[in-house]
Structure formats: C-alpha cells, structure tokens
Amino acid sequence: MGLHWRGGSGAAVVVALIVSACSTTTSSQPPASAAPATPGASTSEAPSSPAASTIPQGGTLSIAWASDIQYFDPAKGYDVVSWPAERMMFETLVTYDSGTKLVPLLADGMPTISADGKTYTFKLHTGVKFVKPDGTVAGDMTSADVVDSINRVLDPKLKPSPSPVAGGFFGNIVGAADVLSGKATTASGIKAIDPSTVEFDLVNADATFLNVMATPFAAIVPKGTAHDASVVATAPTGTGPYTLKSYTKGQQATFVANKSYWQAGQPYLDELDFKVGVDDNAAIQQIEAGTLDLMGDTIPSGSFTQITTDPQYADQVVHHTLVDTDYLFMDASQPNKGPLSNVKVRQAIEYAIDKDNIIKLVHGAGVKADCIFPPDMPGYDPTCTPYSFDPAKAKQMLADAGFPNGFKSTLYTDTTDPDPAIAQALQQDLANVGITVNVVTEEFSTFLDRIETPHKAPLGWVGWFQDYPDPSDFIDPILSCATAVQGGANASWYCNKDVDALAAAAKGETDSTKRIAEYQDIQKKIMADAPWVPVRHQEWFTLVGKRVGGFSIHPVWQYDLRNLWVKPGS
Amino acid sequence: MTVDVQALRVDHEVAFERGRPRFWRVLRRNPAFWIGAVGVIVIIALAIFAPLVAPYDPDHQFRREGLNSHGDPVGPNAMFALGTDHLGRDYLSRLLFGARTSLTVGIGANLLATMIGVTVGAVAAFAGTPRIVLRRRGGKATRIAIPVESILMRITDAVLSFPALLLAIALVAVLGPSLPLVIIVIASVLWTGIARIVYGRVVVIRETEFILAARAVGVHEARILARHVMPHLLSIIVVYATLGIASTVLFEATLSFLGVGVPPPAASWGGMIFEHIGYYKSDPRVVILPGIAIMATILSFNLLGDALADAFDPHSWR
C-alpha cells in the first residue's frame, strides 16, 4: 500500500507469495533478506488463479482493521486504512501494473512528455462515469474534473486541514505556489486543453511526477466536490469499481459493486466489508474460524510463533519485507533550545538504541535499519551504517553536549501491538544512557494528530511506508522543510535548507545512476543531522482466509483489494 | 454528653458495647473473616515489602535470558520463578510490584471516594434546606432558602447516572494517564454509592429523639453531625469501604486493561493482562497469573467486608 504512516492498522499487505518467497518488487535494489527475489511471481496472483475471463464473480469478503478509516477524501487520507478504502471508490489517471511499472488507468494511454520534461499531456479515457454511493451515475469524467481535482488538493483552506502532501507532492506544478499561499484558487499550470485532454506544466523537470499522479491524492473527483473532507465522507463519488453503501463509524464500511463501472468484467465481488475497530487477536481467531477473510494488521505478537510455525496454516501465512522504515523520531527543532534541538544529543541517541533487541521482540519480523531508504527502494545503500549500538559512547556524547545527567522527555506511540512494547524497549535503551522518558501510547488517530502538530511529541515511534517506488518519497513528504508544518508528516520538524536544495536537484536529475548517487548522498547528510533513529524495515506477516482468491502483495499498494474474488466452492 | 451516651445505648447498631465485645465475638467465629483478613494482610505485606521480596527490578528487561529464540517470553525456570513477560521482565517481580499499584489505587481511591461520599451524603441529609436571612441596612430582612439537600443529591444522581467507565476513560484521555490521576478519576466516579447510603442513614437518624435532645440543649449543628451522627455511620462506612476496595482494584485493572491506566513501564495487574492478551493461547501463564492475583485480592477484601458486615449486624449477635 502506499506507504505512508505505518502504525494503526498496519497495512495490510500481503505478500504475494505464499509463504516462501519473501521478497519482491521489481525495483533495482536487491532485498536485504536472504531469499532471492522472484519478481513477476511475487507480484502476480497466486499460481492457481484463473485467467481474467474466468474469475468467479459475486460473493462477499470481509477484511478487519484495528483502526478506523480516517478519511474517505483522497486529498486527505494518508494512512494504511484510508488508502485501501479510497482505492475502492476513486481512481487516478495512471497507476501501477502488478509490479512497479506505471500504466494508464483513467488516462487513455501514457501521457506525452515534452523534451524538457516539464510538460505532461494526458488524453482521458472516454466513457468513464462518476457514480454516487446509491449507484446513480453523476456524469462523465472530463478534463474539467481533473483540473478541479488537483487544484482541490492544493487548496490551503481545505477542511478540516490542508492535504498533508499539497506542497510536498504537487508544489512543483506551475502556479501551485500561488494556490498554496492562497493568492489564487487555480494553478495556471493545470490546463484543460479540450474536454478529453489535460496538460500539466511543471516548474522543474521531475522524474516522480507520474508517481505522484498515481497516488490516491491525485484521484479524480467530480468538479464541484466540496473542499471539505467531512462532506465528501457523506457521499464519496468517484469512478472506482466499488461504492460506499454504508459506513458506521468505529464499526464497518460496506463497499458494494459499482454496476456502472467503466471497465467491463469488474469488479469481481458483490460486496467487500471493512470491519474496523477489530482487535488483532480477535481477527486472527475469526480468520481461523472462517468468519473473516483478511486482516489489515500483521499477526499479533502473542500468536505469532504459534501461527507461523503451525503446518496447518502453512499455505495461509503470507509474508513480505515491506518498503518501510520504522524509526524513533526526535524533534530536531525542539522549542526553547530543548535538548533534542542539539544535534549532538540526537547523535548520542543514535548510539543508544539496541536495534537487534527490538527485532527480537517482534519475533524477527524485520531487517535492521541503519539509514533511511529501505531495501527494495532505489537508493538503498547497505554500506550506509553511520551509527552502531554503543551506549558508552552515547553517554559520553551526552556529557559532551552538556547533559552529563541526561534529561527527561516523553516518547509517544500508538496502541497497536507491538508498538507499546517497542516503546518500552526504547525507554530502557534511553534510560541506560541517562535519558528518562515517559511512554505515552495513544489511539492511532490521536497519535497522528499529535505528531502532525508542531512540537507536541519530542520523541516518538512510528513507521513510514513508501507512497511510490522512488527515493524522493522518503525525503520530500517527511524530511523536507515544506512538510514541517501543521498537518505535515515531518514528525521530526527537520528542516535543512541544504538538504532541500539537494533533494530538489536530485528530483530533476534524469540520469538514474547519478540520481541514485545523489539520493544516497542526501541520505548520509540527513543521517549526520540525526532527526531519526532508523530501527527496522518491517517484515509483514498476515493470515489469509481460505475463501480468498486473487490475493497478492503489491509492491506499492500492499493490499490491492480491487483484485479479490471468492474461491468457488467456498 | 449524657444525652449522647444514652442515645448510643438505645441505638442497637452500636458496634462496641463497653465490656462486652459482642462484635468481636461474632467476628472471630466467622472463618470468612480469618481467610479474608489473612489474605488482606499477606497482600498488603507483599506490596509494602515488594522491593525486598522481589528477586529483580520489575522494569528491567532481560534481553538475553528473558526471551527465547523466537522472541517470546520464557516459562518458569531457575532464574525466573514465574517466567518472564513479553519484554523479558521477571514476572514474579512484576506481580509483586503490581500489588503496590493495585493496592495504592484500590485503597487510595477508595479512601478518597469514601471521604467525599460520606461528607456529601451526611451534609445533604443533615443540612436539609437551610434558610439564610439577608438583612439590608435599614431595610427588611429577606429569607432565602438554599436547597442544599436537593443540590447535593441531584449532583450525586447525575454522576451516578453517568457511565463510570466512560467518564474515567474520557478524563484519563484528556489529562494523560498517571497514578495520581487514576486514583482521582476512580474516586470521582465511585463516591456516589456511599453518598447515597450515608444519606439514607442520616435521613433516619436526624429525626431521632437524641438529635432533637442535642439540639434542645443547644449543641451546635456541626458538632451534632460530627459527634452524634457519625458514630452511627461507622459500621456502614467500614463495611462499604472494605468492599469498595475490591471493586476499585477491579476498576483499576479494567482501566489498565483498556490501556488508560497506570502508564508503562509501571506494573499493574490489569495492564499485565492487557499487554499479554494475545498470548492467552500460546502462553496462558502470562494472562492467568495476574488474573489470579486480582481474584485473590478481591476475594480477600470481599470476605473481610462480608464478615465485618455480619458482625455489625445485631441479628447475628444472638
């Protein structure tokens, strides 16, 4: 799934390959884990899946999540429950195939790109219909809808707050800056050439523009959609294969097949239920009992060893190393010259964390993280190991920084297993070097609000999944000055103008080898500033019900729920 | 004073009669009392002496010895008598220190709740609807009736009608979890029960002749309340407070189980169950042990409370 915040319900995901193949993705970097990558296989459906024409139609499946859906508005949702929910109802101009190759979806063919890389022209697919939740058609999609959709994401007055990536993802469009600052309501660089042609003009050439256009943030909503996520939630209207039949907060979102869907033969299911607020342990039990088909969360700690080692579940346990980094963030701009605003203190903390212990606590479900980019992400650099576990050195550095007796602080995380346990392990690591922290665990949405509000969390434990397979996705949305704002995802409030400039340059670099080298250099510079302690790249384990067909892990979406069908005879 | 002593003699619920400890005679014949009392003393002693009794620091994570190769807790062995928890901490030590949390909250919150409840109930019943006379300079006197009784008891009803657990969770969520807050939160929702009981008793007592007599000889209202009414409430307060500790311990466990109790890493029995609920199939020990601790504590206080109630009851004096 797109990546974005891990936590809450972790993402669902699954891996494509049942059990054995654990790596995947078609990206160029080899995974760190031992098993050889089997691209293709990993991203395709299970070997037994029938050809598209014979996919059984109808039936109902259910998936459980611990956290609720935060937003039904594609401009706002940025977590592992909202994205799958949005992708049921909304679509983008381009998307990914079963791997990481970009393919057209609402666009009729891939866009034409000008020689300077600054102008993208999309032809729109004709006959695409917006459908309301009650199943009635709200009209055909035209270029005006596309223009309106992207301007809407840029709107600084979007309620209840601006899109978390407005500037980070779309700020490079000509005129976007004026919309972001409230000087204009439409960006001059987004143009409807004719009813079925849209042109985007960029300030700088950007290799990731199409990746951005494939994220749910760039989903096409009908022109005139309210600039208010709570209004969208009452009647989400998109072009997707399912519509939201009903939603009871804290309980269930019921998605039913869109009978007017523009692609023949889809969707496969009559209904897909998102059951929210379901505890992981309850979900596991229900899958074992056959009353639930999928879980959005990973297998919880308590039953992890039991289930993953039980031969009975051998073909139902699916796992995969995510393109994710879980980290301890530190408020690098802590107000009032707080200790964490001192780079030496942050570097000391880098040496204080026993990462191997945390991997052990999660039953080995992960790869130790030393830097920002995860394996499978272009730019991953196994030689990037700036800090090692060395509490004595950490203590010495703290003393040198003027904190021989440490200091007190607070470490926040969410209540989803195993995060509270990991937070307590971090607490002991910090205590070992003299830093006393209170651990506060909060429900995922409360926690997200906190870390996206300036300086309300000096320390915290969180994870980031990729939004798209490009290293810029681990810099621009979470470590750039533009996102160190209210509602932004830069939990460290890290802002280094030099890094911003390098990142802008790297983004426009067209030579992919040079580009990756530039990102590796940026990664080293950020790690020297130590806004995070990267701890692990999570390996995802989940249990899949026996009735589920079409289940595979997708390197970007993790769970691509649109592909699910019910196995005949079940 | 004479009036006072006479009144005590008349009231048949007086606990101790000079020279004839009928209360104690009944109590000591009751096996439930002995079981409850011994249980309570043992638990309190373990809580007080936890630092001496516990083999390890309850918060220390034994990262090598305390977790097996799968990263799961280890069962009882030579090093850890009751095994470890999911972070490799000694379970026996955590159970012992958990007793401190449970009893601190249980006794603290209950004392607080009893104090609030008794005060509110007794004042409401005894004050009734006093009239205040306001006299303007040179003007007429105005009499204002202040319905203290109604106000206090309606507040009690309002708090009582609110779901206690929801109120507690909301308060903790807003103010952030901490041990003192958990005590205050629990007390703030549990005082209503005893307020109502005390109110009911005082309403009866205030109409008795000895109170009338005390008033007749000019004893101040506050003194009547403290010296002549309160002794009659002793029995119900003792019984209710003892039984209340049991429900408070459970309430704390519930809050901790819901993740809004005493913050980590402090050990709390409810929190220990909460942390390990996923292990109930693979390693039931980590769930059952704190469960047994909660059960034993509640049972002890309940047995003791019931025995005290029986002993205070004149019908059991024979």
What does this 3D model show about the protein?
Helix content of chain A is 25%, strand content 20%. Chain A has 16 helices and 25 strands. In chain A, the strands form seven sheets. In chain A, strands 1, 15, 16, 17, 18, 19, 20 and 21 form an eight-stranded mixed beta sheet that branches. In chain A, helix 9 (343-352) runs antiparallel to helix 11 (391-400) and helix 15 runs antiparallel to helix 16. The longest helix of chain A has 18 residues, at 512-529. The two termini of chain A are 27 Å apart. Chain B has 318 residues and is mainly alpha-helical. Chain B has twelve helices and two strands; from the N terminus they run αααααββααααααα. Chain B is elongated, with a radius of gyration of 25 Å. The two termini of chain B are 30 Å apart. Chains A and B meet through helix 8, helix 10, helix 12 and strand 19 of A and loops of B.
Low-confidence segments of chain A, given as residue ranges, are 7-50
Oligomer: heterodimer
For the record, give the distance between the C-alpha atoms at the N and C termini of chain B, rounded to a whole number.
30 Å
Count of strand segments of chain B? 2
> Helix segment count of chain B?
12
Low-confidence segments of chain B = 1-20
Beta-strand share of residues of chain A: 15-25%
What's the order of the H and E elements of chain B?
Answer: HHHHHEEHHHHHHH
Q: Strand share of the residues of chain B?
A: under 5%
How many beta-strand elements of chain A?
25
* Number of contiguous helices of chain A: 16
